[in-house]
Amino acid sequence: DWTPDSFIETTIAGLKEKLGDDKVVLGLSGGVDSSVAAVLLHHAIGKNLYCIFVDNGLLRKDEFESVLESYKHMGLNVKGVDAKQRFYDALVGLIDPEHKRKAIGRVFIDVFDDEAHQVQDVKWLGQGTIYPDVIESVSVKGPSATIKSHHNVGGLPDFMKLKVVEPLNTLFKDEVRKVGKALGIDNNILGRHPFPGPGLGIRILGEVTQEKVRILQEADAIYINNLRSAGVYDKVWQAGTIFLPVQSVGVMGDERTYEHVVALRAVESLDGMTADWCHLPYDLLAKISNEIINNVKGINRVVYDISSKPPATIEWE
Ligand code: XMP
């Protein structure tokens, strides 16, 4: 019978045998899968696992620092890489969501390749691929698609010539969470909502600028903190804030304002394939809206997304 403990024991033994004294590089995303994969590999090979965590400038407010801290606390050999400017530069002038995704994916691969090169004699690429990723490898989204589109642009990056080790590729998401829990991984990482690889880059509709990222991070932090303190964060599959490419008229004191609009999204789902919008309490929505408008300069209107998937999608881009 499958249990998290038996899985952990056999997987670590198998990894030790397979990897011996070889070095492995692995990209951490802050998400559940890459974190659990890293901890398993760390148990098997210790300091021979070189983790790379890239700050793409498109993460939630303070997320890079706090997640990096959690990783270090877990004993992982992790290097945090500030590549914010490289991502912002690559996004200048891009409006089309797929162009933005490709640009973000391409920069990620370049940054990761640069970092992987600094690890002498590395033999393996570790990945947090889970079973549904294996079956859905034809999907248009996700890292494999990113790598493919990069592949079409130029040659294969060097790190992709590495052998691949994927300790979670037989597991479903709920099993990964159970394994993570049995490994003692912090609930701050295990319980977090899904977050797209391109991050806020696809939650800012239209062109991404640093100023829009800053505004959106502030609004989003207010939203997520309120979901947490109201005790609804764990009941929601995924929540996020979207920066809309419109301005609307408002009034502050005696002054007319003409500022930006953010949309709040919260959905219930089992697997992200279909989703219903969450019926959040009106009082909670009112509190969040007031806090955002009163505290985030540049926003004078908040709307709530009441679309389900299908026919809408969870993200707006
Ligand atoms: P949609 O918007 O298609 O999203 O309903 C379904 C799930 O996938 C996530 N998502 C992405 N994840 N790269 C990712 O790694 C992407 O480009 C991407 N686009 C959407 C989305 O957050 C949701 O969990």
Automatic annotation (TrEMBL):
Domain GMPS ATP-PPase: 2-192
Keywords noted in UniProt: ATP-binding, Glutamine amidotransferase, GMP biosynthesis, Ligase, Nucleotide-binding, Purine biosynthesis
Enzyme Commission designation: 6.3.5.2
Keyword check for Ubl conjugation: no
UniProt-recorded Gene Ontology molecular function terms: ATP binding; GMP synthase activity
GO cellular component terms listed in the entry, alphabetical order: cytosol
Highest rank taxon of the organism: Bacteria
Amino acids binding ATP: 29-35
Reactions accelerated catalytically: XMP + L-glutamine + ATP + H2O = GMP + L-glutamate + AMP + diphosphate + 2 H(+)
Pathway: Purine metabolism; GMP biosynthesis; GMP from XMP (L-Gln route): step 1/1
Role according to the record: Catalyzes the synthesis of GMP from XMP.
Assembly with partners or alone: Homodimer.
Protein name per its UniProtKB record: GMP synthase [glutamine-hydrolyzing]
Gene: guaA
Whole-protein coverage range: 193 to 509 of 509
